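Field notebook, page 400. I keep forgetting to write these up properly, so this time I am using the form the group agreed on. The chain and the ligand, protoporphyrin IX containing FE, are recorded exactly as supplied. Prediction of the bound pose follows.
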Amino acid sequence: MEPIETVYHSNFKRGAYSFYQSIRHQDPIFPMSKQYNHTSWLITRYDDVKELLKSQSFIKDQSKLFSPAEREKNPNDMEINIFQHMMLDVDPPDHTRLRRLVQPFFNPKSIRAMEPRIQTVADTLIEEMRHKDGPLDLIDDFAFPLPIIVISELLGVPAEDRNSFRQWSNTIVAAADEFEESFIEDVQAFSTYLTKLFEERRNNPQDDLISKLLQAEEEGEKLHTQELYSMVVLLIIAGHETTVNLIANTMYALFQHPDQLKQLKEDHSFIESAIEEGLRFYSPVDFSTARWAGEDMSFRGKEIKRGDFVVASLSSANRDEAKFEAADTFDITRKDNQHLAFGLGIHFCLGAPLARLEGKIALQTLFTAFPYIHLAPSAQPKWKEIFLLRGLEKLEVELT
Ligand code: HEM
């Protein structure tokens, strides 16, 4: 079996699905690498990924594996670390406390109430696309601004600062692959920006999520300052990076399957199942669902040691032929589509109802406004070479 580093460096995203398929057959609990006596495993089958995500033997917080003395050897030298104690990276009881604070803002009822506003944002973007001179990039002109405006408004962050968030969050997401020089600078800029915003909002509370979080922070036990920063950074990044890809990847899959594009244009009642199929077929989150083994254990016949790193590939699970009929076929009429694109268990995506609604409104609005939308003949869609997510660099389209 080819080592994963080789596959990665030879344009991993393009070859990922055949690579996953061969691993699923040959070695589904795949030892990717070994370092300092610890193995990093890649889990590729649907049932195994499901079991991993539900299991309490795998944890998120690596620091729990260290003794207090070891922790002191690696002090945190940043005044505010915007990644520390992030809800996504902690375990109960901290996880339960943090999730409880934000859950009411993301439950289906709260999200339904946002529908008219999301529609207005989509309509405004469509009007701008209609009047734009020159080539249209569905990502820059539509799929990116829609979710970033929505999450910014929900949080109470000025949406006009969205290009800064985009730069900061791109650097942060890319850092999982390669550490860019601008990383420290961008993280500092993000942190300074939030400090100013929090100060302003403390003096002038609004009816937004940041004001609610600041109130919880003042009450002490509910939210520590560090957690406040990390929560807002998480919501900004998770709230747009993935949804941009949901919209663009689904549109790309449709462009690749003209018969289904035609079917959808003629009958919008397939939009919701097309979104679910887009989530399964080109899952926006790939490699970022990782855990640490909290104890020595045997997992599907492999000996996993406490402290081993375990990555669940949602992309692979969602293409597992043992679970999905014709798994490599894009089919907007697929029934009972139990994909794992939003994860599972206690860390199941908080924003799933929002992402689904944004996806639905996006496609409905696009196809209503531009029934002839198609991929520009000169377009050469290319997957971004980042490990964590599956997203395109550009998606050039024509409207007539
Ligand atoms: C968690 C995917 C949109 C906020 C997750 C996880 C996945 C995921 C797979 C679980 C990670 C793990 O178990 O390690 C997606 C996809 C999206 C999307 C595919 C869009 C298509 C959103 C949106 C938000 C959001 C719009 C909005 C705010 C979060 C948060 C968590 C999370 C806060 C952490 C939950 C926790 O730890 O309890 N997401 N997400 N996501 N997502 Fe999403």
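OBSERVATIONS:
- The radius of gyration is 21 Å.
- The pocket of protoporphyrin IX containing FE is lined by residues 53, 87-88, 99, 151, 234-235, 238-239, 242-243, 246, 284-285, 289, 314, 341-343, 347, 349-351, 354-355 (CB under 6 Å).
FOLLOW-UP: compare against the apo run.
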